[in-house]
Design brief:
By secondary structure, this protein is an alpha/beta fold. The protein has helices at residues 21-37, 59-68, 87-100, 122-133, 149-153; strands spanning 6-9, 42-46, 74-79, 105-106.
Length: 156
């Protein structure tokens, strides 16, 4: 078994160096092609959602495009957050990426997500959790859950 080398692409567009997304994605594909020309064995796409710098939300799409612009290099998803996708759709898109790559595609998923990405609607879910965890006395009257008559008479 020989040691292999790959590159991870965390495709981002930070505010201080902001470019058009078309340029960001085109430059990524150019870098993937350069990696193949330089002899790298693999390229990997990483996914994230809700990031201020627009971190690539579609690793399967980028992997498919990378596959159509290369001939030898293995193309894979380093991190596809399965809880955020329908599993049948992931399987179908991965199969298409594998066909486009002539069998060079590897579907990679994490064993578990971190607390920020575990829920499909990360920011909304966190806001909702914070509201649910806020003590009732701190909530405006209209947001308080309805109480049953017996709870009210018991002084709850």
């Amino acid at each position: 078994m020989t040691l292999k080398f790959g590159l991870l692409f965390a495709i981002r567009n930070p505010r201080q160096w902001r470019k058009s997304w078309a340029q960001v994605y085109a430059e990524t594909i150019e870098q993937v092609q350069a990696a193949e020309e330089l002899g790298f064995d693999s390229v990997w796409m990483s996914e994230h959602h809700g990031a201020d710098d627009g971190y690539c939300p579609s690793t399967l799409m980028m992997a498919g495009v990378a596959a159509t612009h290369t001939k030898r290099i293995t193309v894979g998803t380093r991190l596809l957050l399965l809880p955020l996708h329908h599993p049948v759709r992931v399987a179908e898109d991965a199969a298409v990426a594998d066909v486009l790559s002539n069998g060079r595609f590897i579907l990679g998923m994490p064993e578990r997500g971190d607390a920020r990405t575990r829920d499909a609607r990360t920011r909304d879910a966190r806001r909702g959790d914070a509201e649910r965890e806020r003590p009732e006395r701190e909530r405006p009257e209209r947001e308080r859950p309805e109480r049953k008559d017996e709870e009210m008479s018991a002084g709850a």
